[in-house]
């Protein structure tokens, strides 16, 4: 299905665009229920927002330690040193693993819900 | 989807202020939009929070490519075992999907991946459109600047096959005016942060074989998108005239911004790579990177034929793509990943390309084919290359 955004060749001097054919991936339901898909999407988006706040806080702390005073502009413009960048990346990866690592558990290694004996390994 | 209405959403005063704010912090070129400066050659994203959002998606990709991928492999092996198969059993994509698609763990992998793919494009697209006037002016002014050139063809109607939202990038390459900007910063997530300095393209340019005569006066990258390899080729062959062509004007326009900003003398032209303006026997080297799996079989054949026509006798054709240096998918997990890419990453023409016999197609137009040419990427010892008979 082509989006009827514009007709003909490059539609004008301002955008240099033409119509395009939209993908349908955003209409797919992967987890068997659209609500589950949406909750997963929201969970990942929430992680992104939380990380942005946390990263800003870390950068603010870095600046404060170095300068003793900070401004919003200094935080926006701050370029972490390579060492600070490594620290941030490690912290980010820990943050992601702590929250989302559960998704990577092996589904084979589950305890049967109908097992009666808590001492049973099966 | 870009609409003129959105483009003009902000008031004229607001737009003017935004441009001023951007320009005030721009460095170097008067029209350069880089409010947070650069990291090497990469213009930093214009806001810390946006950079952090992309950083999160980068980290999430690391998680997907590592632990989540391992969990998916383990689950796939369990599914295969339950069906009396092994991980090495060759399987068709259709049979693979029958087994894998109903499984929630396999779909969890795809859904997580698809989520990051969509988010990494959407955040940058939103930012570009919020500052549409500034980014448009930057591209407009770069078109009139050098050291290189850009030629756009307002009469060119891109064929339908080029209009898909490949990689589920919103608007694809032709439908969003900031497609190039979106592509660059989204691609940085795909590279999990390892390509901020175009290291991959520099490495590919270094792998391109030269003609036996050693003479390299003119080089072409077909389907160059934002010209990262085109620029890397110019760095490798500083004395040569280096061209990049592409059907997508928004990609080329951003490529021109990058080239002007970096002071690299390359030439961009909007055209179909299978129907170029170049004369016969013109180039010493014709190359391309990840183009063939984005085009129809007819398009692929046209691109190969055009490479042959425009190369001088003795000239070298060096296509770089899936399978040009590595085998095609055979096992169930390889087929699962191929399906993910084809079906859910809108790689519409991937299956046509998979069916294409590249060496044979190259021989058909007249190339002397070497299937064990120098490797383009790590993890392989070869890449196909063709030489036009002298």
Output the keywords:
heterodimer, A: 122 residues, mainly alpha, 3 helices, 0% strand, flat, disordered N terminus, B: 390 residues, alpha/beta, Rossmann fold, eight-stranded mixed sheet, two-stranded antiparallel ribbon, 14 helices, 47% helix, 13% strand
Q: Please give the share of residues in helix of chain A.
A: 40-55%
Shape of chain A: flat
Measured by DSSP, the beta-strand proportion of chain A falls in under 5%
Order of helices and strands of chain B: HHEEHHHHEHHEHEHEEHEHHHEE
Which structural class should the secondary elements of chain B be placed in?
alpha/beta
Termini separation of chain B: 49 Å
- The N- to C-terminal Cα distance of chain A equals 52 Å
CATH superfamily of the domain at 198-387 in chain B: Vaccinia Virus protein VP39
Output mean pLDDT of chain A.
Answer: 86
Largest sheet of chain B: 8 strands, mixed
What low-confidence regions of chain B span 5 or more consecutive residues with pLDDT below 50? Answer: 1-27
Mean pLDDT of chain B: 92
Question: How large is the count of helical segments of chain B?
Answer: 14
Biggest interface and residues each: A-B, 55 and 67 residues
Low-confidence stretches of chain A: 1-13
What is the molecular shape of chain B?
globular
Helix/strand structural class of chain A = mainly alpha
Assign the CATH class of the domain at 198-387 in chain B.
Answer: Alpha Beta
| Percentage beta strand of chain B | 5-15%
Biggest β-sheet strands, sense, barrel of chain A:
none
